[in-house]
Every structure is written in C-alpha cells, then in structure tokens.
Design brief:
The protein is of the alpha+beta class. The protein is built from 2 helices and 8 strands.
C-alpha cells in the first residue's frame, strides 16, 4: 500500500492484492475502494468480494490510513442533570452503529459491533471513541 498523487486534492492510497494467484490493484479514496482493471468481481462471487473488501478496510485501519471514528456524531441526551448522557453514532464498514457514552463508559445499542466485527477491531474503535468523546466533553 502506498500513497499516490501526494499533496494534491485527489491524493489517495493505492494497494495491491493477490487472490488465487491473480493480482489486483485498487485505490482507497474518501472511504471508498475503487478497483482498477481487472476488477476482482470478474473472478470471484459477490460474497467473496465483500469479504475481500472487509479485509482491505481492516488492513487500511491497521496501517493508519483511515479512522472510522471520523464519522462519529455526538448529541447530548440529558442536560442539566447531575450526570451527562450522550448518544453517538458512527459507520464501520458502511454499517451504522449507535451507543451511549455514560460515566466514561460505552454502551452499544443493537446491533452490537462485536457480533459483526473482530474483537481486536472493536477494541480499537472503542479506544478511539473513548478518546474522541473525552475530547468532545
């Protein structure tokens, strides 16, 4: 993975990927994967392509290319009370997750991210949410 068109308005990260011995290239820009020719959907089914894109997103997170908590939206639920309560929502891999931040702790609504994502990923997201909520408050 490497940045291309650095310091320009259309800067993006380009990555290479090998699936069953075939090489593919893609760009990651503004939260989206844009496949270059050949597109893997020509060789794999929709389910496998979705799994590959999920894995690419996880690798991008691990390499610090993207931060899914950038989409974090926060709104106060209780004000003028002895304890503050804030609701937040964010998108992870295109799916919206919501929760509340109460007494420094995160409580997720349904669906809970642990049912859909790897534990290590959820832990990283929760750490970043904690950090941003503490900055916000």
């Amino acid at each position: 993975m490497e940045p291309v068109f650095e310091n320009r308005t259309y800067e993006r990260h380009q990555f290479n990927l090998v699936i069953d011995g075939r090489k593919y290239k893609g760009d990651y820009h503004e939260g989206e994967i844009v496949w270059l020719n050949p597109h893997p959907k020509q060789d794999v089914g929709e389910a496998e392509l979705k799994a590959v894109e999920i894995e690419v997103h996880e690798l991008l997170d691990e390499h610090g290319v993207r931060d899914e908590t950038d989409t974090l939206e926060v709104e106060p639920m209780l004000t003028d009370h002895s304890r503050e309560l804030h609701m937040f929502k964010l998108k992870i891999q295109g799916e919206e997750f919501k929760g509340i931040f109460k007494d420094g702790e995160i409580e997720w609504f349904h669906p809970k991210p642990r049912r859909k994502l790897k534990d290590e990923r959820v832990e990283k997201v929760e750490e970043k949410v904690q950090q941003k909520m503490n900055e916000h408050l």
